[in-house]
Amino acid sequence: MLTFMTPVAGSAVYVAIEVVQAKLGERPSSFALFHVGLSEGGEQRLTYQVIPDSGTGELTGLSGQLQLDNTEKVHHYTMMYTLPAL
């Protein structure tokens, strides 16, 4: 994870990459996400994206985005994705 803070209060950015270990049925799989958090004048935006061609096993060919909703300081994730037909 890398971060950069500007001299202006409330403006900064971070970038990160993480590998997600998953299991579909009985088959272990994984994929990687990159995310960017941008704060401009205190207004925040988040982007989570599946890294192309990072899916393994049953997740080969996975593409999509992850959405984070922060409700009452609890994080809720929703993933919109596509997988190629077998």
What can you tell me about this protein's structure?
The chain is mainly beta and 86 residues long. Helix content is 0%, strand content 66%. The chain has a single domain (2-82), classed as AOC barrel-like (Beta Barrel). Strands 1-2-3-4-5-6 form a six-stranded antiparallel sheet, with no helix packed on it. The radius of gyration is 15 Å and the shape is elongated. InterPro entries: DUF3224, SO1590-like_sf. This is DUF3224 domain-containing protein. It comes from Deinococcus detaillensis.
Keywords:
AOC barrel-like; 86 residues; 6 strands; mainly beta; 6-stranded antiparallel beta sheet
Care to give the gist of this entry?
The protein is mainly β. It has a single domain, classed as AOC barrel-like.
